[in-house]
Specification:
2 domains, Arc Repressor Mutant, subunit A, 10 helices, five-stranded parallel beta sheet, globular, Rossmann fold
Amino acid sequence: MPQGDVVRVLLVDDQPLFRTAIASLINAQDDFTVVGEAENGLIAVERAHELKPDLIVMDVEMPVMDGVEATRLLTEQMPAIRIVMLTVSDSEEHLFDAVRNGASGYLLKDLRPDQLYDMLRSVMRGETPISPAVAGLLISEVRSGNWTAVEAPSATTGPPITARELEILQLVAEGLSNKQIGRRLSITEGTVKNHVHNALEKLHLDNRIQAASYIVRQGLGHSPDPS
């Protein structure tokens, strides 16, 4: 995240009214500013090269070029930019394609404004926020063995993770953000971040999605509530 700077945001959505509403919400935050808008993925790629934003908030389904393809191109051409999908689509295919192509998060448009702010800030801290509704799809696919976009190691030769680190990774696998985990466990967000970082290093994992994959593949996740 830019140290001491305002995060520059590019909005990409084919609905002008929605772009206006989201721009107004984001611009009301002191640490974000919308520097440009685009109505499809092709224009988004062009604007990104012109404006060099820190963060792109991208819809999935758009004419001319969809958000997944635009994310793939931007990840190849401008890998430093964080890209978050903000969409009405809870399709498994869209979720997995977006993550495979470099998306840093996948959010549904039914978020409350405060949830949106928290998740955008978490992206700039290096987290990978996913709306709970689609986090469940990710976990189901990993559990069934149908998704192989991330290959987490089955064992490591490094130091074992602690009980607290395991507990936190279990909550990561449920789609919770650092802030939500901190509230659940009554610890600070910074402490959660440190535990996640240490656990990823010990397990030789790159991100939270790989961590979720590892927890599920090793059968370490919380058992679902019987209902």
